[in-house]
Design brief:
Helix content is 43%, strand content 17%. The protein is an alpha+beta fold.
Length: 69
């Protein structure tokens, strides 16, 4: 997907209050808004997708994953 298309979709999700955006330096970090009334539905839908933990671990080992506390 192109960067403009991703930005467009993120803006739609943000306007629907399904995600939140936090700036961390030069980065924008997006999270699912657990306060939204549709959060249980979104959480259920996401449970059908495979876990990304292995990919995230690999990125971290490569020094490519940035973790914010």
């Amino acid at each position: 997907m192109s960067q403009p298309a991703i930005s467009h979709h993120l803006r739609i999700l943000k306007n629907a209050d399904l995600i939140t955006e936090n700036r961390k330096g030069l980065w924008n970090v997006y999270s699912i808004n657990s306060q939204n009334i549709y959060f249980p539905l979104v959480k259920d839908i996401l449970s059908y997708f495979p876990s990304q933990e292995e990919k995230l671990d690999w990125l971290e080992r490569q020094g490519l994953r940035i973790i914010y506390d």
